[in-house]
Amino acid sequence: MLRIILIIGTGGFLGSVARFFTSKYIQQLFPFSFPIGTLVVNILGSLLLGVIYGLLDRGELLSNEMRLFLTVGFCGGFTTFSTFVYENASLLKDGNFLQSALYAGLSLFVGLIALYIGNIFTKLL
Asked: pTM to 2 decimals?
């Protein structure tokens, strides 16, 4: 178990560092107030996760450790949005349209409310 945790942690570390530099580079290329760097990172992470899962569907091209390193570790560190998109796509693929809409809507709506509450809470301290 410790080996798996280290594999995922290493991937997460590398993904987080890659997110930081990619987002910063893109934002410097397009210096708008719109968070284009984060948008690009989220789209790239989703694309990368799709490629990885496409490779996994083809058979035993990647070991379980490499799958965890790339998906949970690297992509998870690069952007949690990629996992969110994959889970919604899985729900849609299985015909769970209501669950997908609920998951997407609640994630956005409740996430924004939680952000607001957390912000207010810290101001009250």
From this structure: 0.77
